[in-house]
Amino acid sequence: MSILCGLPLVECVYCLACARWAWKRCLHTAGHDSENWGFATAEEFEPIPRLCRYILAVYEDDLRHPLWAPPGGYGISPDLLLLKKTYEDTRGRAPPYVLYLDHEHEDIVLAIRGLNLAKESDYAVLLDNKLGKKKYDGGYVHNGLLKAAGWVLDAECEVLRELVAKHPNYTLTFVGHSLGAGVAAMLTMVVVQNRDRLGNIDRKRVRCYAIAPARCMSLNLAVRYADVINSVVLQDDFLPRTATPLEDIFKSLFCLPCLLCLRCMRDTCIPEEKMLKDPRRLYAPGRLYHIVERKPFRMGRFPPVVRTAVPVDGRFEHIVLSCNATSDHAIIWIEKEAQRALDLMLEKDETIEAPAKQKMERQETLTRHNDEYKAALQRAKTLDVPHAYTPPSEYGTFNDEGEENSTRSQGESSNKSSVDESWDALIERHFDKDEHGHTVLKKE
User: Fold this and answer.
1) Which of 121-125, 139-143, 398-402 is least confident?
2) Could you tell me the residue ranges of all domains in the chain?
3) Which Gene Ontology MF annotations are present (predicted)?
4) What is the CATH number of domain 29-383?
5) CB neighbour class for 98 (10 Å; exposed up to 12, middle 13-18, buried from 19)
């Protein structure tokens, strides 16, 4: 038809469609990912800048004489640093980490550093995986990161169990950056699934903060563990957004922009319904905190805002074509912008010094998080996400126990009724009433 009309109509339509796609794709900014999320409060965001500094402390050889301390220091007392493991200690099976007893915030913190580009052992952890290789707790996870998490738990299980028992009011926090974030998220899952190894620790005492995490678990797991795992993403960070297997990313590290652009175009053409129903597709774990500090077509950084949610669809599915996609992955920038965001929150919160008001706001935050968590579980079930679970009862397994108790009560009532009927039949068989109405033994 285009030849008969003398105009390449089909070609023109195709070119216009491609131009429209490219225009929309280039206009997609990081702010679009979280534009419908709620704002984080100062109380819930407070641990994140502090924990970022704890991760930075892992890079120091001697905390008593630090070389790269941020303004204000790391906030760590060297006397309370219980242990520090290097690559020699872990034998390359896990990244280096520290265990710190934070009395000021009543917290037991295990902080894991990020990828070391000069260490082959870190690449070995990343390369030990392929999509669908490892199933765990009804979903799929990154095999290498799970093995590293298992090694850390085996190595520090005794120490952690003693600390949890000695400080029953302290929380147990796992935190990491990049590669370490994936290990921390896997470690949290393993601990929650094996709480008996830490003296049957309450699930509410366990938490994780994954800073700039890699996609390491399937969607059903990412949503189900959102009550204990939190992910922090700075603006355009590429790693939480790309579903490219980690081994492909770091094999192509020196042509990473080309790989990201190609992957960006490929993922944009895949319908989101197909993505959601792929049980092997990995995602950033848990509840998401998105720090937004730049706006489209504007130069420089703006006062950062933090949005948070437990999204199911639209969960950082699109790579942002930005010159800051790699720099926003740096832990130094994340710590700096997270602290700026927290300072702004504290300035706006005029009632931060009122303890009663703080307690009320904390309760409101917990209630909101619980509601969002249940809504995300229900949303995953509605979208037919593979292996998605229905929202649990507010009282854990109360419903199951209630059904069990109900069944038990029915059984007991049935047994009691049968006993009563047998007793009545026995009395009727052997006893009778006399003329005065008294019960007397029947004559044989």
Assistant:
1) 398-402
2) 29-383
3) hydrolase activity
4) 3.40.50.1820
5) buried
